[in-house]
Structures are given as structure tokens and as C-alpha cells.
Amino acid sequence: MSRPEHLLVVDDDPEIRDLLARYLARNGYRVSVAEDADSLRRALAADRVDLVILDIMLPGRDGLDITRDLRASSAIPIIMLTARGEDTDRIVGLEIGADDYLAKPFNPRELLARIKTVLRRVSAAPARADAPRAKRLRFAGWTLDLAARELSSADGVEVALTAGEFDLLAAFAEHPQHVLSRDRLLDLTRGRLAGPFDRSIDVQVGRLRRRIEADPREPKLVKTVRGGGYMFAVQVERE
Q1: pLDDT, tens digit, 9 for 90 and up, residues 159-182
Q2: Helix, strand, coil content of the chain in percent (nearest 5)
């Protein structure tokens, strides 16, 4: 039998930590908890963690600082928990590399759905039944290895991507020359529709452009289609 995925819940509220730990354990996950940056660091050093559920409002170093630190050395998936109405925190969290966010208060079933989606995306197995048979996609000198989840430049240098960035790039590269709406991109990458004020795709596109565009301010690969969404405006070769 395969081992259950290991989740780390980081929240300074002991009631929330206990509630989430018990709920997620009942749904088949192995769960550890931490209350601040120090205990999170100890938990990560002690065992492999598959996904971090991270509250932004923590004592000492907050969730945004912790995410920056994690992204400097790791691509571990992160779902941020934010206060309802704090749009700035959500946008900053996505800009610095969080994979998804959920506003408090939330239904634990919604968090469970987000966890399943993120873990499915980072799994080596194809996430969708209609996934292409190609193992590699080549475009504009770049090589996207779908099986290894790696992006390499023309001179063979690997470019580190977060799980969210990789899945967004894969969605674009699998649908070149097509206008993809924000709802469609969220469906392809996260398995959900956008809310009325959801800017997460725009933030992720901005991050992706900084990775692959010669000039992110004048993008040639990922182009904005006014009123429509985005289009991957290059030819893609499949292997």
C-alpha cells in the first residue's frame, strides 16, 4: 500500500490546529502541526512533508515571510489561510509562490478539495484523463518535461518553478494559439472556477512571465487578450 500524504498544518490557534488535524486524518492523511516558524522548521527537518497549510497571521515571522524562505530552497506545495477581505495578503502570497489560498472562515470540505487538487497536480501521474501523450513540449528554445516536471532553457539550464507555475505553463503549452479565459485556466490548473474578485491567475501569469519572457513587460510568449484572458502565442513541438 502507498503511504498516506503527509500534511503540515501551521496555525497559532490550537483549536484550529486540532480541528484540521482530526478532520484531515479522518480523510486519510498523515498530519503534523506547528504553531510558528520555529516549530515548522523543526517539523520539516524531522520528516518529509507533502504539503503545508500555512496561516498568514502567525506570531513572530508571519506566513508571508515563511513562504519566501520556503520558496528560496523548496518547491513544497503551500496553501495559505488568509483573513477574509485581505486581498493584498492573498495577492502577495501568490506572487511569492503560494500554490493556492483559502479565506477564513472556511468549510473544511473546501480545504480538503483544495488539498486534493494541489497534490494531484504535483503528482507524477497525469492529472487529467485527456492529458496529452507527449512527454516533452518544446517552444521558443524552452523544453518542458511533463513527466519530470522540469523546465530547461535552450542551453540546458533547469529553471525552478513552483507547482502552480509549472501547471500554468503546462496548461498554456498544451493549448497553444488558443485564448484561455481565467476560468478555463483555473479549471485546468486547480480544478475550480474563479470567484468574482479572484486575481490568482493574473498573479501567476506575472510570475511565469518573469521566468520565461525575455522582457516580462513586453511578453511575446504569454500574451494578454483584452476581455478574453491569455494566449500562448508560440508554436509548440510535442515529443
Answers
A1: 988 878 888 999 999 999 988 888
A2: 40, 20, 40
Q: What is the DSSP letter of 199?
A: -
Q: Say which residue the cell 533547469 belongs to.
A: 158
Residues 120 and 99 sit within 8 Å (Cβ to Cβ): no
CA atoms within 13 A on the CB side of 170: 30
Q: Residue 26: enclosing H or E segment and its boundaries?
A: helix 14-26
pLDDT at residue 132 is higher than 80: no
Grade residue 85 by pLDDT with cuts at 50, 70 and 90.
low
pTM of the model: 0.61
d(CA 143, CA 156): 9
Q: What is the SS3 assignment for 29-54?
A: CEEEEECCHHHHHHHHHHCCCCEEEE
pLDDT digits (tens, 9 = 90+) for 26-82: 999 999 999 999 999 999 988 889 999 999 989 888 999 999 888 877 778 999 998
DSSP, collapsed to helix, strand or coil, labels residue 189 as: helix
Rounded Cα distance between 110 and 186, Å, is 15
Cα dist from 168 to 91, 205, 238, whole Å: 16, 8, 17
